[in-house]
Amino acid sequence: MSKKVKEDNITIKQEVSFKERLWVIIPVTLLVGLIVVLAINHYDEFTWSGFIGGFDQEFLIFLLIGIFAQLVDGTLGMGYGATSTSFLLAYGIPPAISSAGVHVAEMFTTGASAISHHHFGNINKKLVKHLLIPGVLGSITGAYLLSDVIDGDAIKPFIAVYMIVLAIIIIRKSMRKTIIKKKTKRLNILASFGGFMDAVGGGGWGPIVTSTLLGRGRNPRYTIGSVNAAEFAVSFASGITFMLFGGIQGWQVIIGLILGGVMAAPLAAILVNRIKRKPMMIVVGILIIILSLKTLSKLL
Predict the structure, then answer these.
(1) Phi, psi at residue 251, to the nearest 5°?
(2) Tens place of pLDDT per residue across the chain (300 aa)
(3) CA distance 110 to 264
(4) What are phi and psi of 113, to 5 degrees?
(5) Where are the domains of the chain?
(6) How many CB atoms are located within 10 Å of the residue 179 CB?
C-alpha cells in the first residue's frame, strides 16, 4: 500500500472519529453552557442553607419520580414526560410548573440518555437527522403557547385526559402479537406533532413517535436509542422556550427530576435489550391511567 493511500485512510478515520465524538461533545457543551447560564441568572435563588434545606421528604419524592420516569423512558423509548407529569399533577403541581419542570429536567436527562445510548451503539444517525428539526420546531411552538398564551389551570383536565389517551396507546401497542414491517412515511409530520404535543401536554414524544415507528416494524433497539437521542434536541428547544417566555419555577421539582434521571439513564441504556417490553408497557400504561384519574377526581 502506498504512502498516499495510508495517509488518506488515516485522514478518513480521523474524520469519522471526530464525527463520532460530536455525538458526545455537542450534548456536553450545551449542558455545560446551560448550567453556566442558570448559575449566573439564578444564583441568588440558592443559598447554601436553602439548598441543604431543600433536601426534604418532598425533594426525595421528586428524585424517585425522576429515577422511575427515566427507567421507563430509557427502556421503552417512551413515557418520561407522561410518567413524570402524571405523578406531578397527581401530587398537586400546577400544569405550567409541571411541564416546564419536566422539560428543563429533560434537557439534562435526555442528554445523559443520548450519550448512554451512543456509548452502547443504540443509535441510527439517519433516523435522528430526520426527526431532529421538525421535532424541535413543534416543541418550540407548543412551549410558547403553554407559557405565554394558554392558561395552564384551564387545560389541566384536558392534559389529564391526554395522559390517559397516551397510556391507552402504550397498552394497545404492547398487545400487538405480530408486527409487519412497513416503510415509515412523513417522518417530519410525525416528529412535529410529537414535539408539539410533548411540550403542551408535558409528555408524548415517545408514545407518539416511538410507538408509531415500532408499530411499523422498526428495530426496537435502534428506534428507542434514536428517538431518545432526538428527544435531547426537542427537550432542549422547549426548555429554552419555557425559560424565555415563562421563566423558571419549581426548582425543587427540577433538581429532583434531573438528579433522578441522570442517575437512572446509564442503567436504562443497559436494560433496553434485557427487559421484557410487554409487561413493562402494560404496567406503565395502567399506572398513568390511575394517576390521571386521580388528577381528574381532584378537579371534578
Answers:
(1) -60, -35
(2) 555 545 544 454 455 566 667 767 777 888 788 777 777 766 665 554 554 455 567 888 899 999 988 888 777 767 787 788 888 888 888 877 787 788 788 888 778 778 888 888 888 888 998 999 999 999 999 888 877 777 656 766 777 787 788 788 778 877 776 655 666 678 889 899 888 888 877 777 877 788 778 777 777 788 888 888 898 888 888 888 877 876 677 778 888 888 888 888 788 777 766 777 677 778 777 877 887 787 777 766
(3) 11
(4) -65, -45
(5) 55-299
(6) 12
Hey, what's the cell of 98? 409541571
Pairwise CA distance, residues 32 & 76, whole Å: 28
Residue with cell 395502567: 286
95: cell is: 400544569
Please compute, for residue 58, the number of CA atoms within 13 A of its CA located in the half-sphere on the CB side: 11
Stated pTM of the model: 0.72
Residue with cell 442558570: 38
CA distances from 90 to 293, 295, 299 (A): 9, 5, 10
Q: In Å, how far from its chain's centre is CA 189?
A: 19
Q: Grid coordinates standing for 28? A: 456536553
| C-alpha cell belonging to residue 173 | 401497542
The dihedral over CA atoms of 81, 84, 85, 89, expressed in degrees to the nearest 10, equals 180
Q: What is the DSSP string of 176-215?
A: -S---------HHHHHHHHHHHHHHHS--HIIIIIHHHHH
